[in-house]
Amino acid sequence: MAAFSNLTDRINHIFSKLKNRGALTELEIKQAMREVRVALLEADVNFSVAKEFISNVTEKAVGEEILKSLTPGQQVIKIVNEQLIELLGSTQSKLGVSPKLPTIIMMCGLQGAGKTTMCGKLAYYLQKQGKKVLLVADDIYRPAAIKQLEIVADKVKAGFFQMGQQNPTKIATNAVEFATKNGFDTVIIDTAGRLHINEELMDELKSIKKAVNVFETLLVVDSMTGQDAVTVAKSFDEALDITGVIMTKLDGDTRGGATLSIKAVTGKPIKFVGTGERPEDLEAFHPDRMASRILGMGDVLTLIERAQATFDEQEALKLAKKIKESTFDLNDFLQQFEQMGKMGDLNDLVGMIPGASKLTLGDKKIDEKQLKRNKAIIQSMTLEERSNPKLLNYSRRKRIAAGSGVQVSDVNKLIKQYEQTRDMMKRMTKSRRLLF
Amino acid sequence: MGFFQKIIDGLKKTKQRIGFKLNELFKRGIFNDDFYDELEFILLSADIGEDTTIDIIETLRERMTEDNISDPKKANEYLKEVMLEILGDEHLELNPPTVITVVGVNGVGKTTTIGKLANIFIKKGKSVVVAAADTFRAAASEQLEVWADRAKVRIIKHEEGSDPAAVVFDALSSAKSRKTDVVLVDTAGRLHNKKNLMEELKKINRVVERECPNAQRINLIVLDATTGQNALSQVDVFNEAIDLDGIVLTKLDGTAKGGVVLAIKHDMDIPVYFVGVGEGIDDLMEFDAESYIEGII
Q1: Which residue on chain A is closest to B137 by alpha carbon?
Q2: Does B193 touch chain A (CB under 8 A)?
Q3: pLDDT digit string, tens, across residues A159-177
Q4: B98-244: what CATH class?
């Protein structure tokens, strides 16, 4: 699988070779950069963008600054990181609010980029900020597209507007009228997927944009897109003067290299990334975090943010108290499993931990089924057993195994796991180390 | 209008860009390091990928040196030949009863492809039933229903959220009792690193195996031509879950070339069987390696 390993692994690999050297020659930097180039291309960074990136980094790396530095490897990583952040865009941008309500957002992009799903996520996100959102079905071509948006709107409890297969511009105009009358402050228009070279359909978008006062024109791009991403983004930008980009499907094993080069070519900010199938799987785009992630420094900030959003603060305080008083029992262990389940795909979380991608996890991916099984085992215990695990003798374990449909050895494993966790927590509170 | 013309039309813009550059390059008639550097750039920007590109270039360089080639036209022929050798020339032979399972990640065009495939088989005089086993995405079965209607084939569907394997079971039972030639199974788009979704695919596969042990079974992966090197990893993971027999390359009517299929054939020996070149029901055709290469370089 060497050929498919991601950019993080590649760059880690390259610099693990560099790290231990005292000084670097020009030739060595060039060699390292050759591998950086390969890694960037494998991550689908646009060829020209990669070329420019390499020449910038090389220019900065070769020369006195680096040769005189004490740890050249670290210096190179720093330069690569800085350049990458620059490439990704240096500031974080958010969605704007139109001075004249409603704020109208138009979604556009190729077929299958994930526009309709993203409409639901944006609605969910904005509603959490107190906005009242109307979703408008303006894809009159794809079979069942209207129905799909209706289901999505229903799921996130947003308003929904459709007029069947009528003229898209007319639908948009009527939708905005409807929004104004019914107190919606945000309108999201879901347009049909189209090819950037289809002039007729591109004109349709221009017409919608002209007819209603579109405030944000967002281009939705599949983060697995290859070299062509730049062509697509350029064409959409030239035709519609987009205000931002949303990258979708970043929960696959893709590094989204090509989508990142869109920023370099269009100069338009990447505003959000879609990371899963649930409405809440949407994250604001942070160039620095993304760069760190690409360079294998982990995405700790996102991980912490996600944990904070999910973990109930009071629960956390209670847990901290329990750890301190060493009364952490199986009830608390069960609660931990439940909290973890709420945080989303565990394998995604692992990817955010620094160095975790380097661990030889291989096929030993974290199994969500295992998590469920563990929950079932604890749920098959009596309340007394949960708060006093010492009671769990063989016959009780046998009963629990039968009750949760597992082997006794599975129950033993879980108890062992619990004991280890408890002990680890004790040690942690003693050494006052943080969880992350 | 044949395959060739459609491909040429679809890739017109691309050809103007890439083909022009390539022509200029060959016309110079100087085959030095600069030539190969430039050729590398051109191949890489077609998403062919680093490994395969280097292989193509090395082979070309070897043969050109060996035969002492300096004629630009001949050099061009040599390049096509090298690429053609990688792609091969394989076609899908139907041997009914046939069960075709169509897989792929979200948004590549699986449902659309099923509709078009049904149409192709109907036109060949086969009877077809489609199974709406994407019970996950909102309105997926409605979308397939529209396509089934267009192609005039039967559809078996359950409600959203139901067990996909049960849908497949019903479709197979229906096909057996009516002696239907081809069963087309539409599956949910899944990002290939989601383990449980892959397990679901394996389950579908087991149902087919158990219910129709003697049927011809074909597993097709749908790839979006705009996808870059991640397509390699998509094929690799799906191939591990269910053995893949071939590729349907969709959305070739844009400016993307889908050159990653060369890398896939090169690395994993999985051939392209069909290409999608538009949204109409007739816009799916059998893959022809020669026309394809003609179209992209």
Answers
A1: A148
A2: yes
A3: 999 999 999 999 999 999 9
A4: alpha beta
